[in-house]
Amino acid sequence: MTCVSNILEPKDPSDVKDYLIDWTDVLTAEGETAIASSVWSPSNPAGLLPADGSPPSGSPAMSYIDGLRTVLWVTGGTAGVIYELTNTIVTAGAIPRTHQRTIVVPCQQR
Fold this sequence. Notes:
The chain has 110 residues and is mainly beta. The chain has one helix at 24-29; strands spanning 16-22, 35-40, 48-50, 63-66, 69-76, 82-91, 98-106. The longest helix has 6 residues, at 24-29.
């Protein structure tokens, strides 16, 4: 799934879904070529939980870096609630830069 805007497609409470942020445009504009670290903050409000996904071998089970994209697998949530997930990255350049983006995930029963 590509994040065109910061509001993503709805998630059913029983779904285990992956959400990603593509940092290509941001990093390319700065001449950066890699992400050194990616941290996802707990959902706001609380309710979406990290879930085991299918990351590449050697990556954390719930979130990972895929080139210039960061991915988080989530489960849970309550129908009718709109959640925010915030991702903070640090670039791998000689002068590391920090960037933060928040995505909005509506939760609805399907």
